[in-house]
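User: Hand in any protein.

Assistant:
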Amino acid sequence: MRHFFLEGDKFVGKSTMLQKVVQEMAIPVGGFYVERRRDALGNITGFELKAASELSVSTNSLENVDHHCFIQTKDGKRSRNLAVFEEFGCELLRKARQSGQIILLDEIGGVELLSDRFTKELHTTIQQVPKILGVFKSEKNYQRQKQHTVEKLEISHQRESLKQEIFKADGEIIPFTHENQDSLETRLRLFLKK
């Protein structure tokens, strides 16, 4: 297996586990991860695209970058900024491919697929890179996102095409639950050691 993707329900711990293992094993990674922005009450106010290389940096030194937020809620209004993927996201993928590092794609299969440019970069990355780990947005989470967004989000074709690319490149998309979390963590560690 060349590519290791997890999929599962929201807040089940997929990204947390990937990031924890990468940090504990001190593995340098390229690519990206998504960080939830929260207000003082803990409500999610946005989603920021971050460089995966930051995972090896002390979290105390990391700052939020407003222009890297691709979904933001301000004054009760939610907005999208696909330019984040088309500029910063594409740059992260190109740099990661050139670095020869393991690539983290956390998470794909959502709103970013509305950007044709970024979707092409994802396909190229999946085809060319020897080892990727990541999270693929589950169908349940995608359908939930479609229902709760004002803007159009019809990316079923792009999602299926991306899944097929992962499978064609000898990748797996593995269901993640609370029950199989420990066994998947062990499997992930073995995958990263090879």
About this structure: Strands lie at 3-7, 29-38, 44-51, 69-74, 77-80, 102-108, 132-136, 171-175.
